[in-house]
């Protein structure tokens, strides 16, 4: 398996620290709003990375954090006039709801910054003691000039970062590139006690603690959007090197930008879409297909025509599986051998730096085989099985049974009436226990039975 490593700027063979195990960390949301469709690309991609590694037989531990203390969270909570923790909890719940709606599997661990505050303070204290950080008027900064490795991840040099070029000049810093580890408190802000007075942590220390506390000092893969390479991931890596002389992660993965019809997404351009908005207009599988049909490191352009094409592609898969009556296919344990070339091609694609676009091409080839009337029924059925098997690795077909069944309303009615007939027979046999069980089980599904002189009638409550 080859992975493009941002730290070395090339593809490398993936060799986990512990054979057979993968420790994976991907940056989660800062919960000050509903997450936008650009964020969704990262969340969906690392969901696929996790799924594929599991499919390949690795024991994966996947950690995704939630940043629940941040400048934007504080500002927005003050605007709305509610405590920051209530505000963060509101949008944390929204993130979990929207991630589930996209079909993203919950990570194994989902730490929150406010839950690990003592460990964050301890990390910063160690950096101060080792001489890699300094205090100035209640703030604590990382001294980037002390670390030769600083800039190795992003390729940015300290001498290129002039004061005032990227952010307002801070005269408390020794170097313009020094970054904040601890912020002195301001009126109205949430605070924690520390050796430097009341304050709160900087963003970059939070992720170091949340990842290392679960995955260890150095773990296998750290990922996120390309916008996080600098300064966030560079500054995480710097703290890890300062503490241990070792990298935070051996492989760094970053997905490309999302544009909206050729423009960078921006509220000022009125092209800012939350995932929650898009999910009211398009299916989760179409959104997933849209992102995975392009290599994760490439920029991608979101427009209505392309997402409509993605919806049609998903419908095409569903229609093929419906035509073959996939839900009622007999078991066939020998089908994999017949189609092993398709699976091998799928693996080759994904082993080549998670090339989901080429992997999806394999799904199209299988779909064509399903629809080929010139093949034997068993061959078409086996292609359907393989389509679902490989598609599931990419997160497709999660609600397949419900989606295919929803296209068969007449069958649902027939099944209800068949159960009522069984109940009628049970009543005739004075088998009251079975009669009551059928009635209660149907009631649990929202189907109410009413016995009348002319027979049983039923109704369905949505």
Shape: globular
Number of helices: 16
CATH topology name of the largest domain, in short, is Rossmann fold
Q: Give the distance, in angstroms, between the N- and C-terminal Cα atoms.
A: 48 Å
- CATH second-level architecture of the largest domain: 3-Layer(aba) Sandwich
Count the E strands: 15
The CATH class label of the largest domain is Alpha Beta
| Fraction of residues in helix | 40-55%
The total number of structural domains is 3
The CATH homologous superfamily of the largest domain is termed HUPs
- Major sheet, described briefly? 4 strands, parallel
Produce a short descriptive summary.
With 462 residues, this protein is an alpha/beta fold. The protein is 45% helix and 15% strand.
Give the helix/strand layout.
Blueprint: E1 2-5, E2 10-13, E3 21-26, H1 37-55, E4 59-64, H2 71-80, H3 84-101, H4 117-129, E5 133-136, E6 139-142, E7 179-184, E8 199-201, H5 203-215, E9 219-225, H6 229-244, E10 249-255, E11 258-260, E12 263-264, H7 275-279, H8 284-292, E13 300-302, H9 304-323, H10 335-338, H11 340-351, H12 356-370, H13 377-393, H14 400-405, H15 409-428, H16 432-444, E14 447-452, E15 455-460
Parallel strand pairs: 3-4, 3-9, 9-10, 11-13
Antiparallel strand pairs: 1-2, 5-6, 6-7, 7-8, 11-12, 14-15
Structure description:
- By secondary structure, this protein is α/β, with parallel strands linked by helices.
- The chain folds into 3 domains: 2-268, 3-Layer(aba) Sandwich (Rossmann fold), CATH 3.40.50; 282-405, Anticodon-binding domain of a subclass of class I aminoacyl-tRNA synthetases (Four Helix Bundle (Hemerythrin (Met), subunit A)), CATH 1.20.120.640; 409-460.
- Helix content is 45%, strand content 15%.
- It has 16 helices and 15 strands.
- The protein has helices spanning 37-55, 71-80, 84-101, 117-129, 203-215, 229-244, 275-279, 284-292, 304-323, 335-338, 340-351, 356-370, 377-393, 400-405, 409-428, 432-444; strands at 2-5, 10-13, 21-26, 59-64, 133-136, 139-142, 179-184, 199-201, 219-225, 249-255, 258-260, 263-264, 300-302, 447-452, 455-460.
- The strands form 5 sheets. It has a 4-stranded parallel beta sheet with strand order 4-3-9-10, sandwiched between helices. Strands 5-6-7-8 form a 4-stranded antiparallel beta sheet.
- Helix 4 crosses helix 5, helix 5 packs across helix 6 (229-244) and helix 15 runs antiparallel to helix 16.
- It is globular and about 85 Å long.
């Amino acid at each position: 398996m080859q992975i493009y490593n941002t730290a070395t700027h090339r593809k490398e063979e993936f060799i986990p620290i512990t054979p057979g195990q993968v420790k994976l960390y991907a940056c989660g949301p800062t919960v000050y709003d509903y997450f936008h469709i650009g964020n969704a690309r990262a969340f969906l991609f690392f969901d696929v990375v996790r799924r594929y590694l599991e499919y390949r037989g690795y024991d994966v531990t996947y950690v995704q954090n939630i940043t629940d203390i941040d400048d934007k969270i504080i500002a927005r909570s003050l605007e709305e006039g509610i405590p920051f923790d209530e505000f963060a909890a509101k949008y944390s719940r929204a993130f979990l709801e929207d991630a589930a709606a996209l079909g993203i599997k919950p990570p194994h661990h989902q730490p929150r910054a406010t839950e690990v505050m003592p460990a964050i303070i301890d990390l910063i204290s160690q950096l101060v003691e080792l001489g890699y950080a300094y205090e100035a008027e209640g703030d604590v900064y990382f001294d980037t000039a002390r670390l030769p490795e600083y800039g190795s991840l992003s390729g940015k040099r300290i001498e290129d970062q002039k004061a005032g070029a990227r952010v307002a000049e801070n005269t408390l810093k020794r170097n313009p590139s020094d970054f904040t580890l601890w912020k002195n408190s301001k009126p109205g802000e949430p605070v924690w006690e520390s050796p430097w007075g009341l304050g709160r942590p900087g963003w970059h220390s939070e992720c170091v603690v949340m990842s290392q506390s679960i995955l260890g000092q150095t773990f296998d893969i750290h990922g996120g959007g390309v916008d996080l390479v600098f300064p966030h991931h560079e500054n995480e890596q710097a703290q890890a090197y300062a503490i241990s002389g070792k990298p935070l992660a051996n492989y760094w993965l970053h997905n490309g930008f999302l544009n909206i019809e050729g423009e960078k997404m921006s509220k000022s351009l009125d092209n800012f879409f939350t995932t929650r908005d898009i999910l009211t207009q398009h299916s989760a599988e179409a959104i997933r297909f849209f992102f995975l049909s392009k290599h994760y490191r490439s920029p991608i352009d979101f427009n209505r025509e392309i997402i409509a094409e993605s919806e049609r592609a998903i419908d095409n898969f569903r229609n093929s599986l419906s035509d073959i009556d996939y839900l009622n296919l007999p078991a066939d344990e020998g089908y994999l051998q017949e189609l092993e070339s398709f699976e091998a091609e799928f693996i080759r694609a994904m082993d080549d730096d998670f090339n989901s676009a080429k992997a999806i091409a394999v799904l199209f080839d299988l779909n064509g085989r399903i629809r080929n009337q010139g093949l034997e029924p068993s061959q078409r059925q086996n292609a359907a099985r393989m389509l679902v098997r490989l598609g599931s690795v990419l997160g497709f077909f999660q609600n397949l049974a419900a989606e295919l069944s929803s296209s068969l309303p007449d069958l649902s009615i027939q099944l209800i009436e068949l159960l009522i007939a069984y109940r009628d027979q049970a009543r005739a046999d004075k088998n009251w226990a079975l009669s009551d069980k059928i009635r209660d089980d149907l009631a649990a599904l929202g189907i109410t039975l009413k016995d009348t002189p002319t027979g049983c009638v039923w109704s369905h409550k949505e």
